Amino acid sequence: MELPFVSATLVGSIAAICTTGAFVPQVVRVWKLKRADEISLATFLVFAVGTFVWLLYGIQIDSAPVIIANAVTFGLAMSIVALKLIYDRSSALTTGPPAPDP
Question: What is the pTM for the complete model shown?
Fold first, then answer.
């Protein structure tokens, strides 16, 4: 279905800005707090893989909004993964191993 008053590229671009931009506050929060214990590593790894596959898809169909949005989102997701690994490792070195669950 095409909207007669707006192009598909514009719609895709607006969607890309919204969904990609949604990750910026998370990256900033993790960076400022210098901790990411509430972040699920598995979730962000799976999300990053999915985003990378969407990037490949965008390249295949030659869609600038899909390519740009997923390239940026992949970078943001991998930033969160990297910060989580860094901060979790740093936390483990300073506090020792986590206590076992009761």
Answer: 0.77
Domain membership of residue 101 (yes or no) is: no
Query: Does residue 57 sit within a domain?
Result: yes
Encode pLDDT of 14-40 as tens digits: 888 998 899 899 999 999 999 888 889
Q: How many separate domains does the chain show?
A: 1
* pLDDT recorded at residue 10: 85
CA Rg value for the chain:
18
What's the helix, strand, coil split of the chain in %, to 5?
75, 0, 25
| CB-based contact 45:97 (threshold 8 Å) | no
| Residue ranges making up the domain that contains 41 | 32-91
First-to-last CA distance in the chain?
55
